[in-house]
């Protein structure tokens, strides 16, 4: 039986489900003390043996940031003449956001039709298990991988990957490689195999209009006291209008590269069953929905409030606040974004609006024309049942910049989940058909890397 058949048979036999059940049983919540203990057990009892089976020398490393947990690195060296692959996954999951349907326990893997329910099934235990399994299948088939392997696991991705960039900078030699192949986030839709090359970044923007303590009667003072809620609404409209069109040039990228536009030309979003209907008049009308989602910036209002909206009184509130989020693509200048927003709002007549920003993951992506991209697309299309969608970046955030900007790697993300997986929410699940196809695709990619890699760059550490 050829490798694709062996990959399908592995899923069909129930072996992948049984192994995933063991991974889900660890409540590895990174923002809870008991979760930190579970994370350590997961590293010791699950990931270290999994990497050891692959012939890796496994080391655990302290995080340079006390807010984050440890890192686990597995290294298998076959020859200095061979290319080196770096894989990545994260051991942590989010905490619970509410009750699960049908009395499901988030830490017990359960199947309902094609859905495998459990916390971490999609984000990220099911995804890194598929890649570990694919590597095992290739090793068993060939007796060797045909490349050097490095696998990095972090334990704080769900809290912003504290310390990951610093660790990568300190351990450039340990993590030196030719290419990153990893799996996280969703594919375009459940039916479409997808390759994406990076991630949008995120900046949280806190706006605060704090004018006076307490409220003042609207009949006695209306028309002569500035209303902070009205002021805040005007300030927000000065940044993004009521149709989702960003009004501040400082919050936009300089251009939509032609290579990105070409890659997205045939990408259609929001067509899967259960997807919300797209608002065709929302966002920049010059862009297609795919370009707005994957190639451009969006400014979203996440929360907005003044006084008590459920129990309003006849008073002008003294304070109004809002939290906005800028999702931005590579090429956007977000250094000094807070002063830029303050300057823009002041020019609009809103100098009284306080602005505070907090960045999360930085935007980054591998160029569409990189040789690794064409190699991966050709390899995947040779085994996929339908054409593979290429996204310059996906819409969410990942620490891709650590691999592109710090380690200087081409990055190939092969997601084994889909947008409706309910990651971070109750009833998170992995779709069995996506897992099955994902194992076939990952196996093909790793097998091809051991046969005919496109590029081998000189780098420290072999």
What is the fold's blueprint, element by element?
Elements: H1 3-12, H2 15-24, H3 33-53, E1 57-61, E2 71-76, E3 84-90, E4 110-112, E5 115-117, H4 125-142, E6 148-154, H5 164-170, H6 172-175, E7 179-182, E8 194-196, E9 198-199, E10 201-210, E11 216-217, H7 218-221, H8 228-239, H9 258-263, H10 289-294, E12 298-306, E13 315-316, E14 319-328, H11 337-347, E15 354-359, E16 364-365, H12 371-383, E17 389-391, H13 400-406, E18 410-413, E19 429-431, H14 432-449
Parallel strand pairs: 3-6, 3-7, 7-18, 8-17
Antiparallel strand pairs: 1-2, 2-6, 4-5, 5-19, 9-16, 10-14, 10-15, 11-13, 12-14
Helix pairs in contact: 1-14, 2-4, 4-14, 5-13, 12-14
Description of the structure:
By secondary structure, the protein is α+β, with helices and mostly antiparallel strands. Helix content is 32%, strand content 20%. The chain is built from 14 helices and 19 strands. It has helices at 3-12, 15-24, 33-53, 125-142, 164-170, 172-175, 218-221, 228-239, 258-263, 289-294, 337-347, 371-383, 400-406, 432-449; strands spanning 57-61, 71-76, 84-90, 110-112, 115-117, 148-154, 179-182, 194-196, 198-199, 201-210, 216-217, 298-306, 315-316, 319-328, 354-359, 364-365, 389-391, 410-413, 429-431. The protein has a 6-stranded mixed beta sheet with strand order 1-2-6-3-7-18, with helices on both faces. A 4-stranded antiparallel beta sheet has the order 12-14-10-15. It has a 3-stranded antiparallel beta sheet with strand order 4-5-19. Helix 1 runs antiparallel to helix 14. The radius of gyration is 24 Å and the shape is globular. The chain starts with a helix and ends in a 13-residue tail after the last helix.
């Amino acid at each position: 039986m050829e490798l694709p058949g062996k990959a399908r048979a592995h899923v069909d036999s129930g072996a992948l489900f049984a192994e995933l059940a063991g991974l889900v049983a660890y409540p590895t919540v990174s923002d809870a003390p008991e979760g930190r203990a579970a994370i350590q057990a997961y590293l010791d009892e699950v990931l270290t043996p999994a990497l050891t089976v692959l012939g890796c020398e496994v080391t655990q490393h302290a995080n340079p940031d006390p807010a984050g947990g440890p890192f686990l690195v597995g290294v298998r060296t076959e020859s200095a003449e061979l290319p080196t692959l770096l894989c990545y996954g994260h051991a942590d999951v989010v905490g619970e956001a509410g009750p699960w349907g049908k009395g499901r326990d988030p830490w017990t893997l359960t199947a309902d039709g094609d859905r495998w329910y459990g916390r971490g099934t999609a984000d990220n235990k099911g995804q890194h298990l598929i890649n570990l399994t694919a590597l095992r299948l290739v090793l068993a088939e060939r007796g060797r991988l045909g490349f050097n392997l490095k696998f990095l696991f972090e334990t704080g991705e769900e809290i912003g990957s504290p310390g990951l960039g610093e660790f990568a900078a300190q351990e450039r030699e340990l993590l030196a490689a030719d290419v990153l192949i990893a799996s996280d986030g969703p594919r375009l839709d459940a039916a479409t195999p997808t390759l994406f090359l990076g991630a949008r970044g995120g900046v949280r923007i806190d706006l605060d209009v704090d004018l006076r303590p307490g409220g003042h009667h609207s009949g006695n003072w209306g028309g002569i006291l500035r209303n902070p809620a009205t002021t805040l609404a005007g300030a927000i409209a000065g940044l993004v209008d009521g149709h989702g069109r960003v009004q501040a040039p400082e919050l936009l990228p300089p251009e939509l590269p032609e290579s990105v536009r070409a890659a997205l030309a045939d990408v259609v979003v929001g067509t899967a069953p259960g997807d919300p209907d797209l608002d065709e008049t929302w966002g920049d009308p010059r862009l297609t929905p795919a370009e707005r989602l994957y190639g451009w910036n969006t400014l979203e209002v996440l929360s907005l409030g003044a006084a008590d909206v459920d129990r309003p009184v006849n008073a002008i509130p003294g304070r109004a606040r809002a939290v906005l989020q800028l999702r931005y693509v590579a090429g956007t200048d977000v250094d000094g974004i807070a002063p830029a927003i303050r300057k823009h709002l002041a020019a609009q007549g809103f100098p009284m609006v306080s602005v505070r920003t907090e960045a999360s993951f930085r935007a980054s992506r591998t160029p569409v024309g990189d040789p690794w991209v064409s190699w991966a697309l050709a390899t995947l299309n040779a085994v996929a049942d339908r054409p593979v969608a290429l996204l310059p970046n996906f819409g969410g955030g990942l620490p891709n910049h650590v691999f592109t900007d710090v380690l200087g790697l081409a990055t190939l993300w092969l997601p084994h989940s889909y947008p409706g997986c309910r990651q971070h929410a109750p009833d998170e699940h992995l779709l069995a058909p996506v897992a099955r196809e994902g194992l076939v695709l990952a196996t093909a990619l790793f097998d091809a890397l051991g046969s005919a890699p496109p590029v081998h760059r000189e780098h420290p550490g072999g």
